[in-house]
Amino acid sequence: MDPIPSLSRVPSSHSGAGPALSPLLAVQTLLSPSPNAPFPEFQRAGSKQAGTPADNYHLARRRTLQVVVSSLLTEAGFESAEKAAVETLTEMIQSYISEIGRSAKSYCEHTARTQPTLSDIVVTLVEMGFNVETLPAYAKRSQRMVITAPPVTNQPVTPKALTAGQNKPHPPHIPGHFPEFPDPHTYIKTPTYREPVSDYQVLREKAASQRRDVERALTRFMAKTGETQSLFKDDVSTFPLIAARPFTVPYLTALLPSELEMQQMEETDSSEQDEQTDTENLPLHMSTDDAGPEKENTSVLQQNSSLAGSRNGEENVIDNPYLRPVKKPKIRRKK
Amino acid sequence: MNRKKGDKGFESPRPYKLTHQVVCINNINFQRKSVVGYVELTIFPTVANLNRIKLNSKQCRIYRVRVNDLEAAFIYNDPTLEVCHHESKQRNLNYFSNAYAAAVSAVDPDAGNGELCIKVPSELWKHVDELKVLKVHINFSLDQPKGGLHFVVPNMEGNMAERGAHVFSCGYQNSTRFWFPCVDSYSELCTWKLEYTVDAAMVAVSNGDLVETVYTHDMRKKTFHYMLTIPTAASNISLAIGPFEILVDPYMHEVTHFCLPQLLPLLKHTTSYLHEVFEFYEEILTCRYPYSCFKTVFIDEAYVEVAAYASMSIFSTNLLHSAMIIDETPLTRRCLAQALAQQFFGCFISRMSWSDEWVLKGISGYIYGLWMKKTFGVNEYRHWIKQELDQIVAYELKTGGVLLHPIFGGGKEKDNPASHLHFSIKHPHTLSWEYYTMFQCKAHLVMRLIENRISMEFMLQVFNKLLSLASTASSQKFQSHMWSQMLVSTSGFLKSISNVSGKDIQPLIKQWVDQSGVVKFYGSFAFNRKRNVLELEIKQDYTSPGTQKYVGPLKVTVQELDGSFNHTLQIEENSLKHDIPCHSKSRRNKKKKIPLMNGEEVDMDLSAMDADSPLLWIRIDPDMSVLRKVEFEQSDFMWQYQLRYERDVVAQEEAILALEKFPTPASRLALTDILEQEQCFYRVRMLACFCLAKIANSMVSTWTGPPAMKSLFTRMFCCKTCPNIVKTNNFMNFQSYFLQKTMPVAMALLRDVHNLCPKEVLMFILDLIKYNDNRKNKFSDNYYRAELIDALANSVTPAVSVNNEVRTLDNLNPDVRLILEEITRFLNMEKLLPSYRHTITVSCLKAIRVLQKNGHVPSDPALFKSYAEYGHFVDVRIAALEAVVDYTKVDRSYEELQWLLSMVQSDPVPYIRHKILDMLTKNPPFTKNMESPLCNEALVDQLWKLMNSGTSHDWRLRCGAVDLYFTLFGLSRPSCLPLPELGLVLNLKEKKAVLNPTIIPESVANNQEPVISTNNHGQSVGFQNTFSNSQEEEEIDMDTVHDSQAFIYHHLNMLERPSTPGKEQSSGEINMHPVSAAPLSVFSKESNSSKHSDHHHHHHHEHKKKKKKHKHKHKHKHKHDTKEKEKDPFVFSNSPASARSIRSPSLSD
């Protein structure tokens, strides 16, 4: 189980090189050079020369993996392999191991631990469709080749993160093995406090200028994106007027309150119930309308009984010829 | 015409009585805008030898006429299609007006005439002699009607119902003949059966009771069956078909409201008030609403805002509003009330003749006024009466009088009672629209005068009597002779008054009804201290046009220190001076309270008044019981007292107007006090704002303190803590809302010593706009914002221009830049969040025109033209068109004038067409005595053509064209036309013409004849006579215009003669009068008419050729000729009369 801890260290070891990348992404960037041209990849990854300690470290690991692949190939009876094939296989094994590491880490974190245990690995392997039972036998196979341990290279030094302030020591009730508190600036709120604006004048001023800015921006945008008219022949941009477009049904926009106004109305006057159904009326629907006036009628009666004079005798039966059903044609009229 | 008046009652001008009519419209096609149907009239002959039945019909294509199932021959002739035939050379309006009046007379149903003359088949003559019933069945269709029925078909996807397509009947006065053949008179009543087959998704709303609705066999259409059992005139029949939403009035189930899709919530709100109007009228008239049901229909592109028909009214959809709208609410309610008043008087009770119209308009206007008084209060009512009075006075003084009850003796034109007018008042259809509006206004004012005389109680009794007589008559289903009780006549009305009240109102009637003109008083006074007498001098001007002499009582109210006293003076022929004894001796007891007219006692600061006189103020005719204009002189302090302490709003308004002439600190104080007084009527306060602005401008050098009204506005509407910020809007108090709207508009009129709007005021208004916040308001602020833009426009002063440099952005005044910024933003926001009725767009357009006019922005009509297009809201279009009209005037643009005139001819909305002419008349590009490059012959021809034949489908439009022609050219021959030819010159021309044999066809030789005559008329007679050899009667009738009525009568009797249609066809503009295209006459001699039209075409080409030649020359001769003129001067060049122009250059030869 040698590779696992080392792989599991990959993300943490890498965090110094590319703090912005997520661990998995970092692995991928780091470990996915195209097989034929590893060096240019590395160069692209950021370092100008391949000689930084971190690069050396990673190169060494990868070389070890290549050796592993080569020995496995030999074990399987291959005598030679194209470099490209070896690289591909290296890539695959690397991905596989990385995945094991990633999943194992997830499992361990899921159970609120920081270090993966064997069972995490086992679950991971099972999850990946690997028959764990066969593993001990495989490990003890006879033709197993032994390769030399990877050269001991120093773990690259993670550049110290900028420390701001003193890390808070654990309070007594927290066991010492728990990770340290992060830098204070990450959790302590910085008091950039200002008096809340409550001055009426300023508020009004602000509301007014905000609205004006929004309106201006909006209308300018509309003017920029659509057809415009101008008051000055030589200048179309200073006072752009959105071009007048004729409507097919001009009275609708002119008479119906805009949505904004409707909303306002609801806010300011909640008592007035506005039946939504009315606005959705179909051109002609005597049956649904039947109920409309009646409803209004009763509510009016409640509100204002004095007005409901003698005319309003029977509110339940409205006999209006326009509400009567349309008759079927008489057959006898046919000649 | 020679109808007998008085006790005899009504005598029908027709030799038959119509008792029942069926109108059946089987098919309405919205796509093609066509209608197919038939009518069936049941008539009883009243004379034995009835062999011809004359009916009214315009536009309709008549397929077939049957009388009692027998095919009947018919003839169709409409002289109003083209008033002056074959383009007589006359171009003077006098000639036209006479001809037009004659043409209208010739088809006037009140004179027993009609366009359609049906010959009773000889088989039925015996039947007729027994005075037995005749059923006249007429099949007709209408194709793309230009008047009478208006189709609104939005151009979009979907079927007609989804598109909100609708159609409705419309017109000015009796215009029903435009959509079905009928006796189009208000005096021929009958019962009705109306059937309309429409698409299943549509509703047909018409008069009377909806009996049933039946599907057609294919279930895709349904037929609405209406019965109107109350005898009704055809002119009161109407129709509206569309995919209407239906709302049964929750208070009155027999009342149904209709509106276009999606507007139901607005309809609910708008009509929620109607039942109160019903209750009011029924109560004061002590009479139930006469019809069994009432329908209101709100439609788009309305001809007029309110049109009343029997048991239904058609309104403009633009009257609908939501609960958030303040300003429209009273206006809409007024319209509803007006419509309902006309249901009683106008629809249910009809009139005997045109000269009785004033009674109906008077009564309906009067009871509408009573409703106003009850609903809006006495102040509003008196204000309204004053406003109407001022209007009618101004109109009469301008045009020379409005006659309510024209009596036409003898039938000769000589004693025309309205010779001062450029149109005949004999017929409603020849009347200028403005005149008719003023006529209605005067009618209700005169009713009020009658009320003053006989008391309101008697007045209402008279109305009740008329109504109960009518309703008794209307229930006599089978006694049609009784139906004339439903017609009101002037004499009948006056008789009722004298029966009910026992008072003689004849002098009043003589003064105001039988006579036109108003009274003009000039008053001044002196106080004679020795005699303690007020010496009042009242002079009259009764020589100016539009005035008349007043003799009779006149009330004068004098407010003295001891109280208010009424005096009734007798105005007589020669007495100018009137001595009025005063009650108060002096002003010794200073501290005493002063009693006012209404019994109130107030403290006054009397230091301003004259120490010697006890007079505080004097009012002449305070009750407006004379139709008059009063110019009264009293000193400024008296006006100030009147403004402060007189409780009558009319007096206050008069005082405000008078104070404009007294720019003193005392006036300023009085006005500001009124402004601040919350008990004061809001309209008075609004008026005070404008007066204060004027006074401040006159006092500019001595004015101290902040600009007028600023501190007042700040105190009333701005925040306590930060006075530069206006409070968030709260319009719950309408009085202060109106004041808040008005004050900035008035303030913007302030000017500093440099005659500029003070920077402080401009910034103040800009701040109002900036800080305007309507989020917490229950009401919409669209009118308020619109008025703020108006205020910005008011603040604009003419640009300082250095030798007419071109206006560009760089030299834009910084203040104007700020204003433009706001206008731009407002106008753009309207596209995203449109305001109610687009009030803000309207104000922006007006403001832009103001900026253009003042030289801040380059004058350019392009923007307005785009807003004037069809498809914008009508208010926006009108505002834009107004700007174009103004541009046309200021920049003398021929191109824009042409654009406007082409819109008059082709715009789909009749109201717009009418309005353009109206605006051009009110703001004409030039007038008759003015030199203008626009005034040229082509324009004369164009306008002449427009009123002669181009507007035959719309009476109102034609009269509008006549008005415009009058404004531009006057009554006589337009000055830009070449002078009538001289014989010598003509001979020269003839010689030239001879060189080219194609120029003058067959009539060359004949043209020699008129050469001798220098008289226009004689000349044209001669000319036409030469034609008549070949063309016979068609030429004659136009020739003898003066009694063409007689001619047409003659003409129609000669049944073998061809009718006119063939002739119209030849006149180039076929689409102007589609009827003419229909070969209606079954007798029509094909060969004759075709020959005729050939001839005309021939002519037409010749003239074109010749005219071009002439034009060319013309250009060289007259320097003022512009390029535009060349562009399209031949729009109507097919006028044979333009032959005259050929000769014009030779004048200078």
Automatic annotation (TrEMBL), chain B:
Residues 636-994 form the Transcription initiation factor TFIID subunit 2 TPR repeats domain. It comes from the Eukaryota. Residues 1093-1120 have a biased composition (Basic residues). Residues 1084-1149 are annotated as: Disordered. Residues 516-634 form the Transcription initiation factor TFIID subunit 2 Ig-like domain. One of its GO terms (cellular component) is transcription factor TFIID complex. The keyword Transcription regulation applies. Pfam families: TAF2_3rd, TPR_TAF2_C. One of its GO terms (biological process) is RNA polymerase II preinitiation complex assembly. SUPFAM superfamilies: ARM repeat (SSF48371), Leukotriene A4 hydrolase N-terminal domain (SSF63737), Metalloproteases ('zincins'), catalytic domain (SSF55486). It is found in: Nucleus. The keyword Transcription regulation applies. Gene3D superfamilies: Neutral Protease Domain 2, tricorn interacting facor f3 domain. Residues 1133-1149 have a biased composition (Low complexity). GO terms for molecular function: chromatin binding; RNA polymerase II general transcription initiation factor activity; transcription cis-regulatory region binding. Keywords: Nucleus, Transcription, Transcription regulation. InterPro entries: Aminopeptidase_N-like_N_sf, ARM-type_fold, Ig-like_TAF2, Peptidase_M4/M1_CTD_sf, TAF2, TPR_TAF2_C. Belongs to the TAF2 family. This is Transcription initiation factor TFIID subunit 2.
